[in-house]
Structure to design on (672 residues):
């Protein structure tokens, strides 16, 4: 069978089979946002890694070296945030063509350091290499947490589903960057969506707040798009998820870009990747206080977008009349 | 300036400048075999990462998916060994073309797991992605150690330099694999050198033994070749290193392949990369007991190949008559 027929979730299941089941010391192994390792009883070490490849994850026409560095760090920060942890140390591997200007490499590490600095994350090691073509970067981020990690498998029937910030802005930014002609929109609108795409800001403080807040069940960061990532939560938790499309938070800039490019802003919000917002679930009772508490502590807007129900695992999107809407499935590697 | 004019060591110096100096909690940052992090006082977390790219680090004509997986793990095990640590957990990122057979991906993870299993290392997380062309893998390995890490910067004038095993066998294997015609040699000779190249075995037990043995100063694993890696030790320690070429341990199979291909076996041993043997330094007094003790505890042969002296940092190779011999500089990424 070819890889693109199997899909990413099928591949992860297969890798789990090949490498065996976790052992003592491994609280969470393959398949969540980060591994959770117990080296010292009661204190968890978090570890996550992300590979970023030119012409798969970014195009040099749109993203400069500082953007690539920033985003390679931010996506890992977001994984640690999704566990409710504190990021600490990063290892950075970079490969680029021999003829690359050293100043471009400087910009890459500056972008990395700029994204890391607000969180006190230190770059402590890595690897450098040539590449046959294009830039390739891998960032591994280590963090720590006490308390209970918030897993993809922790959603329960009856939970409400909430997201932070707004959705689809990164996808709008990507669409604007890849449009054949510049969309006829004000500079600040285009800057807002392209910044969301090139310089995402991980919800680290928010993840830490949610990581110790009573009543939070599942948590995940939205890297592959709401449909795909909420699908992971549903699948791993053995529950169904219902989302009301009309409730999805969409920024005015996203709507403007979608309008100019003939795209559906709700489809961008439901399936567009790389927003790096957090999604969490909690029972209906505490959800109100959690949303208010988080907004008050961090300034992050929280929107309840749907609920978890018993039944077949999967995600259903509903329109304003309660009818099921078919959407694409977000950004999935190895899609068939 | 172009990257290939700067050289790998220059690049690492430049990265250190960009990202700032280490902070409390970071015992060893960028530039050694692994980062040494102190999360709990007295207990060190080790972390290392390596990027492995098709047509830079391997060719698919010579290396199957299981070989790629094995080696991606082994090179990281070797980095932890070079610190005197115990490897524990691995994160694995893999990108390959969409059309890749899933069975090939299975073989990759089997190779990884086969290399990890003897050391009790568990694969706890990772990332999967498509690649535009060729296989790309990144393995991050976490380990632990008590005691004092053995650094590249710990060599002192008067130390003897010792290596484990033999040198140049991997380079002979690579030369045999890349030869236009099969060298006219017995199968077992070719199998011996190609196995050294495709399936290196990290000196984990030996590294742990040396990590707690009294009198061991600097330690490094030989990944880029003796000339380059001993050059790192000399540079980081601010000392000179003198190596007697005639003392370099060279296996009969390496000599046979060198003979058949018209190569100099001592040049392979002095500059060939990817042997993943350990090099360490110790004072002349304890060196004899260290070599005998290590050989007795682990079975690894130890050969004293030269000495550390005060003076200009750098590596000098001497022939049997004590004359300086000019050699290539091993395998260096971004070589000018």
């Amino acid at each position: 069978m070819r890889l693109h027929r199997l899909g990413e979730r099928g591949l992860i299941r297969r890798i789990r089979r090949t490498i065996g089941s976790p052992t003592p010391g491994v609280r969470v192994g393959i398949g969540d946002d980060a591994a959770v390792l117990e080296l010292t009883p009661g204190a968890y070490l978090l570890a996550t890694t992300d590979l970023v490849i030119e012409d798969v994850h970014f195009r040099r026409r749109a993203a400069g070296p500082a953007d690539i560095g920033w985003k390679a760090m931010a996506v890992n920060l977001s994984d640690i945030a999704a566990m409710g942890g504190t990021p600490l140390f990063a290892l950075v591997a970079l490969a680029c063509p021999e003829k690359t200007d050293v100043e471009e490499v400087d910009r890459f590490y500056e972008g990395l350091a700029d994204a890391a600095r607000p969180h006190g994350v230190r770059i402590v090691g890595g690897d450098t290499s040539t590449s046959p073509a294009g830039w390739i970067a891998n960032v591994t981020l280590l963090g720590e947490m006490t308390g209970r990690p918030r897993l993809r498998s922790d959603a329960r029937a009856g939970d409400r589903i909430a997201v932070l910030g707004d959705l689809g802005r990164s996808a709008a930014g990507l669409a604007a960057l890849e449009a054949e002609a510049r969309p006829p929109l004000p500079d600040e609108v285009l800057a807002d969506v392209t910044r969301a795409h090139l310089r995402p800001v991980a919800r680290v403080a928010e993840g830490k707040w949610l990581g110790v807040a009573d009543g939070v069940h599942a948590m995940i960061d939205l890297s592959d798009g709401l449909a795909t990532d909420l699908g992971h939560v549903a699948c791993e938790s053995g529950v169904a998820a219902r989302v009301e499309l009309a409730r999805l938070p969409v920024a005015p800039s996203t709507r403007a870009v979608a309008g100019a490019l003939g795209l559906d802003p709700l489809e961008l919000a439901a399936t567009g990747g790389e927003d790096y917002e957090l999604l969490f679930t909690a029972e209906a009772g505490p959800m109100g206080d959690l949303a208010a508490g988080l907004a008050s502590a961090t300034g992050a807007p929280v929107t309840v977008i749907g609920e978890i129900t018993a039944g077949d695992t999967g995600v259903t999107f509903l329109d304003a009349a309660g009818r099921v809407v078919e959407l694409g499935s977000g950004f999935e590697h190895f899609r068939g």
Chain B has two domains: 32-145, 152-325. Residues 32-145 of chain B form a domain with the 60s Ribosomal Protein L30; Chain: A; fold (CATH 3.30.1330.10). The longest helix of chain B spans residues 65-82.
